């Protein structure tokens, strides 16, 4: 019996959605040219969708919707779909996932692309009232129209959704073995060049102690290690709790979730971070969510579902 021929990896890295994107396709020698062309088409998907959801682009659809509050407006299928999903995340999380926190984010200094911010020149934000009203009062859908009662920011799950869109295109183009990585939120399809499940590091964890192996799954990580800052001696980060917007938890460093797609993993990961270490872990276990919790002491907690994806070399977490 002939041994299987090792595939090659065709890859391309580029910047979109405020992060580094890396697409890798495992190919045979005859597929290289097509892989390169399809990666370029996938790049265009990222750029087109970013023009829809970016809150920093004044020409984006999201900016248009945010500038015309209190009226019904036409919306794209992308906005309509993700709006419905966000309403669902809001319900599941008990209101912890809420796109209306954009108003708070801007007042505490996060009003531009994070890389361009100079917090030394920012003023400390005021105290904020909790957001206790139902999200459905400010975010409504009716056919092809949408109603924003307050300004929104969908970026919490837009990156995952856009990654899923690129994944769908690659699959429809005939690719079975690839990895689309959007700054740590990724989808792994099929096998890597060695014919094995894709090996994925957990952000913040020592890869010698913990590595995931996944195929046909999305992974998303939420945490505060990348986007945190200080203004006038007060510490902030971008994961604002709408129920307690003046307190910023530093208990968890990251939560990574494995799910059937990246958008779902993205929304769940952010919700679990906001729930906190104990409540989040209990919620994940009760709802059979595959999640890895990493706190600032270096402790790692893995749900029963997530243990199914731990690399065998790391049997201490098995």
Structure description:
- There is one protein chain.
- 29% of the residues lie in helices and 25% in strands.
- With 318 residues, it is an alpha+beta fold.
- The chain has seven helices and 15 strands.
- The longest helix has 22 residues, at 32-53.
- The chain has a domain at 61-157 and 219-317: Roll (T-fold), CATH 3.10.520.10.
- The strands form four sheets. It has an eight-stranded antiparallel sheet with strand order 1-2-6-7-10-13-14-15. A three-stranded antiparallel sheet has the order 3-5-4, covered by helices on one side.
- Helix 6 packs across helix 7.
- The protein is globular and about 60 Å long.
- The model has no long low-confidence stretch (mean pLDDT 91).
- A hairpin with a 4-residue loop joins strand 14 (290-295) and strand 15 (300-302).
List keywords for this structure.
7 helices; single chain; eight-stranded antiparallel β-sheet; T-fold; 318 residues; alpha+beta
Q: Using DSSP, what is the number of strands?
A: 15
Tell me the strand percentage band. Answer: 15-25%
Share of helix, binned? 25-40%
Pattern of helices and strands: EEHHEHHEEHEEEEEEEEHHEE
At the first level of CATH, the class of the domain at 61-157 and 219-317 is Alpha Beta
The side-by-side strand order for the widest beta sheet comes to 1-2-6-7-10-13-14-15
General form: globular
Count up the helices: 7
Query: What would you call the structural class?
Result: alpha+beta
CATH architecture descriptor of the domain at 61-157 and 219-317: Roll
Poorly predicted runs: none
Q: What is the CATH superfamily classification of the domain at 61-157 and 219-317?
A: ApbE-like domains
Q: Over all CA atoms, what is the radius of gyration?
A: 20 Å
């Amino acid at each position: 019996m002939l041994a299987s021929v090792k595939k090659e990896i065709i890859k391309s890295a580029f910047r979109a959605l405020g992060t580094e994107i890396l697409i890798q396709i495992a190919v045979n020698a005859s597929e290289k040219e097509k892989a390169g062309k399809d990666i370029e088409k996938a790049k265009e998907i990222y750029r087109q969708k970013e023009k829809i959801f970016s809150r920093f682009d004044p020409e984006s659809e999201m900016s248009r919707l945010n500038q015309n509050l209190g009226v019904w407006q036409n919306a794209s299928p992308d906005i309509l779909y993700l709006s419905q999903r966000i309403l669902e995340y809001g319900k599941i999380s008990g209101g912890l996932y809420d796109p209306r926190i954009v108003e708070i984010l801007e007042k505490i200094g996060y009003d531009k692309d994070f890389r361009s911010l100079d917090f030394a020149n920012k003023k400390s934000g005021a105290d904020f009232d909790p957001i206790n009203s139902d999200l459905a009062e400010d975010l409504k859908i009716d056919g092809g129209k949408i109603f924003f009662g307050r300004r929104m920011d969908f970026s919490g799950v837009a990156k995952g959704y856009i990654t899923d869109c690129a994944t769908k295109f690659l699959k429809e183009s005939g690719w079975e073995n690839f990895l689309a990585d959007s700054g740590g939120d990724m989808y792994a399809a099929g096998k890597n060049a060695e014919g094995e499940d894709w090996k994925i590091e957990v952000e913040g964890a020592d890869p010698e102690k913990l590595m995931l192996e996944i195929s046909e799954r999305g992974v998303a990580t939420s945490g505060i290690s990348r986007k945190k800052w200080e203004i006038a001696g007060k510490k902030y980060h971008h994961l604002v709790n709408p129920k307690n917007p003046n307190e910023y938890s530093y208990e968890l460093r990251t939560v990574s979730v494995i799910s059937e797609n990246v958008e779902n993993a993205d929304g769940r990961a952010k919700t679990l971070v906001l729930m906190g270490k104990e409540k989040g872990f209990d919620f994940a276990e009760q709802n059979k969510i595959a999640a890895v919790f990493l706190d600032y002491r270096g402790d790692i907690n893995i749900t029963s579902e997530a243990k199914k994806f731990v690399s065998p070399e790391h049997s201490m977490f098995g």
